[in-house]
Specification:
Length: 204
């Protein structure tokens, strides 16, 4: 049941986040649907490739495709005055998608008997893969590589699941809430990992 709930939350959140970014970039209705679907299912497809699940398993998720399509349609039809704060809502839905899919990806890898390192990789790829594909298709620098702390929260969620700290549903829901909150705080307060700027040296 927890698995299904996390899948639904992640699918809805990422489909909405993809649709919002497509509308920000002024894509037409087809572009909005494509970006929403790719964001919702891209991470799962990348994860499946790397942990040895046939990618065709994605096509068995008929209900989730319908949920994603309904979510994108709802966002597309939303009145403009309610979508004034698109960026904020886009970030919030992205945080929910990251958390739900990171935990779901980790559970998937644990179920398949993979070691902790593979569980963490599955968490990161499922949580951020769709967002990376979305940003690349929208012509943006992927959030996960340059923004406030992002993938670290997926690594932590994967570690907690992989080490068996969170196993029962309530622990997993608490982990989902904590991961979403940490991601929200990281963009509200601009928490960043250390980085270095290299300025191009101009020839004189």
């Amino acid at each position: 049941m927890t698995w299904e709930v996390l899948s639904i939350i992640g699918t809805v959140a990422f489909a909405i986040s993809g649709a919002i970014i497509a509308m920000e970039e002024e894509y037409d209705i087809l572009g909005v649907y494509i970006l929403g679907i790719v964001t919702a299912f891209g991470g799962g497809a990348i994860r499946n490739l790397l942990i040895g699940v046939p990618v065709s398993a994605l096509w068995e998720q008929g209900v989730f495709f319908q949920i994603a399509l309904l979510s994108i349609t709802a966002v597309f039809l939303f009145p403009n005055n309610l979508l004034k704060h698109w960026r904020r809502w886009g970030n919030f839905f992205d945080a929910m998608g990251l958390s739900a899919f990171a935990i779901q990806g980790a559970l998937y890898a644990v179920e398949m008997g993979h070691p902790l390192s593979a569980v963490i990789v599955a968490a990161v790829l499922t949580g951020s893969g769709g967002g990376i594909v979305r940003d690349l298709l929208a012509g943006r620098k992927p959030l996960v590589l340059r923004s406030e702390i992002y993938a670290v929260w997926a690594i932590l969620a994967g570690g907690v699941v992989g080490l068996g700290i969170a196993t029962d549903p309530w622990h997993l829901y608490a982990l989902f809430t904590a991961t979403t909150s940490l991601r929200v705080f990281s963009y509200l307060y601009n928490w960043r990992l250390p980085f270095r700027k290299l300025h191009a040296i101009s020839d004189h």
